[in-house]
Amino acid sequence: MMRKNIFITYIVLIIICIVISGLIPLKITRSNYLNMIEERLSNDALMIRDHILDTYDEDELDSFAKNFRSEFNVRVTIVDDKGRVMADSDADIKNLPNHSQRPEIKKALQGELGKAIRHSSTFNADMMYVALPLHDRAGAIRLAMSIDYINKYIYRQSRGVSLALVLALLIALSQANVFSRKVTKPIYDITGLAEQMADGNFEGRMETDTKGEIQVLASSFNLMADQLDAYIQKLNDSNIKMQAVLTSITDGIIAIDENKSIILINQAAQDMFKITDHVEGRHIDCIIDDIDNALDDCLYRGIETSKELIIQDFYKKIYNINISPIDQSDGHTGALILIQDITDLRRLEQMRTDFIANVSHELKTPVTSIKGFVETLQHIDIEDRETVKKFLQIIDVEADRLSRFTDDILSLSELESKDRRPTIESIDIVEVIGEVVLIMHTQSAKKNIDIHFEYSNPAIWMEGNRDDIKRMIINLMDNAIKYTPEGGQVYVSVESMYDSVSIRIRDTGIGIPKEHIPRIFERFYRVDKSRSRKMGGTGLGLAIVKHTISSMNGTINLRSEEGIGTEFFISLPKYLSSKL
Fold this sequence. Notes:
Order of helices and strands: HHEEHEEEHHEEHHEEEHHEHEEHEEHHEE
Helix content: 40-55%
Structural class: alpha+beta
CATH superfamily of the largest domain: PAS domain
Number of helices: 13
Strand content: 15-25%
CATH architecture of the largest domain: 2-Layer Sandwich
């Protein structure tokens, strides 16, 4: 566009100069010729008028006019004061109309010099007319001369000027193209390099073989490009480092300006609040609300504040929000919001509290019972052998209960330990389950419960810790027998899959209500607390099973209906050595 404008401007100026230098001289030449003719006609008119006035004879006026025509080579016309033609050197006066309205005649009849240039229908040519009043006689004398030869001369000159104009214009077009290209090329070069810089490419530099202002501009631009390249590189390095730090930080970070608009947010914060679109420039309340008072204290009073934020989504989330003021170099202020997800911390604190409360509660009952019976034994007659035996049996039961509880606590603690490295060996899961069936036979026989054991292969080999797997099966079968009425059935099956082992344990017991199923694997959780304690349960058996299976990268699910029974589905990988 710039080149086009320069080109057009250059051509317009050249055309104006050529037109002025070509047409003005022609106009001056024509004007000079016309002035010469006018002066000549004026002098001839004076001479003829004086001659007519000296020898005025109205009858001889026409012959005078014709004589003057041949002598001065001009048309001579004489009119009276009414404009009636009295004599004419070139026409029959009878055929000529009244001339009173002719502008030059009109002036002359008013006593002034009249002049006019117009086309004559009589001669079919452009004529110059000059008229003078006949002072001593009423009327006017008019001389006329053709100026066609002047027009023809000017026309010939105009053709020459036009040819020169065309030639000059062609030359001007060529020069204008060269000039505009030369002037705009550095500008286009700078524009192209600027666009490359806008796209992040700072390698281009401007080259020119001209001197003067363009050379200074090129040098300045190249210097600017070098400095900008170094600055952007430094800025990119800093930005990469900052992004690396922000990405590595697991806490959420949000920076806002004095208007509470977001200027920076890291990925952790976006993940915390499930942000998927661009939020920079938007108000902070599009992410976090209910912190206006804390932000006001920080932004306007410079006070570092913190608060807890609870968000109830699909899961309850608890965040600790710390807000610190930021003083910017330009005098403006802002705030840095640090967001820590303390949901797991609060959950662990609650679990610890619940664990201590549950352990205390579970220990208190048997210890109280043992202590009470011991105190009773200390004060009764030692010869009452039956009473002593009964009390000692109760103490023994409570001691067993304490022992089982302690064993379960230790087992669960061991499974949860990150430093635990169980011994992995190749075991025959059919053999292990068979051993458990034999162990549980005595317990099931007391309630007349049949245990049915089925397997797809006589030997199914897998990798794992034998003691862990055995304890897991014992816990599940123990629960199945405990919560199955007398005369019920317990079914155990194991099947070899492609890369896993599938174990199913089903009973025909009392079942589990649906509302309790989601929490059945929690430690110390009991569906029926009084019944569970009565049966000797610690509330840790299914928690131990869950942790055992998780430590082996397996899965466990269950299906249960009240009054019909419960079935557990376990899937364990066959190969664990590389994963544990």
